[in-house]
Amino acid sequence: MKEITNHKRRGFVLGLGKVMGVAGVVGISSIAPHTFAKGRSANLKSVAVHKSTNGRERLIFALDKDVRHKISTLTSPDRVVIDFIDTSAKTKLKLSRNTANKNQLKLVKNLRQATRNTKDFRVVLDMNEKTNAASALKSNGKGYFLEVALSPHRARKTSPQQDIKKAISAVTGGVVRKPITIAIDAGHGGRDPGAVGKRGTKEKHIALQIAKRLKAKIDRQPGMKGVLTREGDYYVSLRKRIAKARKHRADLFISIHADANPNSKLTGSSVYILSQKGASSEAAKWLANSENSYEDRLAGADLHRGNKVVSSLLLDLSLADTIDKSHEIAKDVLKELGTVNDLLRHQVESAGFVVLKSPDIPSVLVETAFISNPREEKRLKTSKHQEKLATAIFKGVRRYQLASLDREDEIQYS
After folding, report:
1. 63-97 residue pLDDT tens
2. Low-confidence spans in the chain with pLDDT less than 70
3. What is the pLDDT of residues 286-302, one digit of tens each?
4. Is the pTM of this model over 0.70?
5. Are strands 120-127 and 79-84 parallel, antiparallel or unpaired?
6. Rounded Cα distance, 146 and 136, in Å
7. Torsion angle defined by CA atoms of residues 66, 67, 71 and 77, in that order, rounded to the nearest 10 degrees
8. Closest CA relative to residue 72, chosen from 168, 223, 176, 224
9. How many angstroms separate the CA atoms of 57 and 111, rounded?
10. How do residues 241-271 score in pLDDT, each as one tens digit?
């Protein structure tokens, strides 16, 4: 019943958005094109294998409409992965071989399939050897066909640049992927000092020092790249921090802070993600108001332009998947922080932080410790403790990255 209700609500929102022309209102142009795909999903009807010359083979996938797709090759074992975006298969695909070529096929060994993300469809071809793959979508007026051309991989001499790619490939599961980009946001800065400890320690300095240490660790890791939203002691508005992350096409957004509370005995680290329905506790709500208040006073931040109701609904829709991913990252980071510091709470908190409101970038906010606690303030000022905190955050992010790669490569027999 809940799924039906959500489906109806989603259809209502998208229809209303189309009528009122509010796409520009919430910056939907920056969201992945399939996030608000129109119409029904495509149906993958069948697949046939055809023999070509020189040891090459072709697979023809029959579809009832145009689709976007991604194709990649993996090794250990050798396989070709084809992802059909916003597509389903009503019947199980079976390799239909041309009878004359039945005993001559040497590349394709087996076909596996599964639904991904509830709306995409993945086909995995188990290969008998390392294979090159290319694809092209064609139409004959009656339907659409995705042709996948397969050919044996020929070993050749590699350049130093290719050797580097191989090293990255070994870390990322046998396929060269775009390095994962992490936007590291040092909270506050410039005329906004953030919280101030009993000994005069300013949150803005601590956050930047930890952020730089985290970036150094990320940049040393193959397949990862860090980007700072600010590199010195200057003010950057909350919205510009998000914009910079999007400019660099960040895959993750980590905002670093040092907590404060009127109760100077309070200690511990905590990790937050965005809450669509408001803060998850009174403490989280108080903290969100505290973090956002400086920006509100400076710029009078207006989160919704034009039709506020429609904008809010569209933003809620686009954030759903991002928040799920944010929660996974936050759990990993929180677990690692627990190895170097006390935890304020042992579960991920949620609140309405402005810097977490990017609809297309999984984002978390880390409160490293309470700068208002004299003991934690003293530790925050030391290079040793800053290094430990940066290492814990890095390990959490790395754990999430590895888990994501495993999920990306994993497929079950249907």
Report:
1. 988 888 889 888 889 999 999 988 988 888 887 65
2. 1-40, 51-54, 96-105, 155-178, 276-319, 403-414
3. 455 555 554 443 333 33
4. no
5. antiparallel
6. 6
7. -110
8. 176
9. 14
10. 999 998 999 999 999 999 899 999 999 999 9
Predicted pLDDT at 59: 86
Q: What is the set of domains in the chain, with CATH numbers?
A: 42-156 (2.60.40.3500), 180-406 (3.40.630.40)
Show the tokens assigned to 41.
């999903």
